[in-house]
Amino acid sequence: MMIPTYFISHGGGPWPWLGGQFRRQFDQLEASLQAIAREIGDGPRAILAVSGHWEEDRFTVQASPHPGMVYDYGGFPPETYQITYPSPGAPDVASRVRDLLTQAGIDAGLDAQRGYDHGVFAPLKAMYPDANVPVLQLSLKRGLDPDAHLAAGRALVPLRDEGVVILGSGLSWHNLGMFGPRARESSQAFDAWLDETLAQPPDERTRRLIAWEQAPAARQSHPDADHLLPLMVAVGAAERETAYRVHHEEHFMGGVTASSYRFGVANQGR
């Protein structure tokens, strides 16, 4: 059985390192991430994370054996700009990812300098707090074309038989100017469309995802599609498989309705 793919809503900034009420608002998300780690089981070869916080002119794979940190947030306590997530990288997997993409006719490259951004180190801290699983990132491609990201996912299907977990990390609703109660109506509308879309038969699901801008409140929910496009890679890599909602809450980050999904059947015995 191939390893499922995932799309997660990754939360705000360096939340696993914080305390108090800010930290508590991520309790349900944290529980869902821990459940995903249990589903994956011990010893995945690597986690290939596609973060909404990294875009390049072509698909680019993080290739450092020991990635550093990218503190891509603002307004947090000074100590959060010194935290580390010392997971090993996976240069061998990076080369495999690049090769699979290029074999599919998709321009791709390697980046040996890129560090982990918070779309990766925050959820991975919740999933693997000991940082003992190799992790590498795949960038989005500028232009954020859904079809291109679905195609990238299709090219990466063989990884699922090679012990690599494909993890799209974004947020099912992402409008920095509307977080809080103002997000309630648009996030509910878009989340309902997303859940209905992902429940469709494969061909219809893909068609609707490509045309996501026609969804209710689409551009209110995603003024920039960077936090939605990781979903396309996860779906493309499991295009004929069933979607299962693995996290859903209606008051996320002060009023957002948000969801995360698994594509494929989890093998609890892994």
Describe what you observe in this structure.
With 270 residues, this protein is an alpha/beta fold. The protein has one domain: Protocatechuate 4,5-dioxygenase, Chain B. Helices cover 33% and strands 21% of the residues. It has helices spanning 20-24, 27-40, 91-103, 118-127, 146-155, 184-198, 202-210, 218-221, 229-236; strands at residues 5-9, 46-56, 59-62, 108-111, 135-141, 164-170, 243-252, 256-263. The strands form two sheets. It has a six-stranded mixed β-sheet, sandwiched between helices. It has a two-stranded parallel sheet with strand order 3-4. A hairpin with a 3-residue loop joins β7 and β8. α5 runs parallel beside α9 (229-236). The longest helix has 15 residues, at 184-198.
Topology:
Layout lengths: L4 E5 L10 H5 L2 H14 L5 E11 L2 E4 L28 H13 L4 E4 L6 H10 L7 E7 L4 H10 L8 E7 L13 H15 L3 H9 L7 H4 L7 H8 L6 E10 L3 E8 L7
Parallel strand pairs: 1-6, 2-5, 2-6, 3-4
Antiparallel strand pairs: 1-8, 7-8
Helix pairs in contact: 2-4, 5-9
What can be said about this structure in brief?
By secondary structure, the protein is an alpha/beta fold. 33% of the residues lie in helices and 21% in strands.
Can you name the CATH architecture? 3-Layer(aba) Sandwich
The average pLDDT value, as a whole number, equals 94
Calculate the terminal CA-CA distance, rounded to whole Å: 10 Å
Task: Let me know the largest β-sheet.
Answer: 6 strands, mixed
- Low-confidence stretches at least 5 residues in length (pLDDT < 50)? none
Strand order in the largest sheet: 5-2-6-1-8-7
- As a percent range, the share of helical residues equals 25-40%
Q: Name the CATH superfamily classification.
A: LigB-like
CATH structural fold name: Protocatechuate 4,5-dioxygenase, Chain B
The counted number of beta strands is: 8
The number of domains is 1
* CATH class descriptor name: Alpha Beta
In N-to-C order, the SSE pattern is EHHEEHEHEHEHHHHEE
Outline type: globular
Number of helices: 9
Structural class: alpha/beta
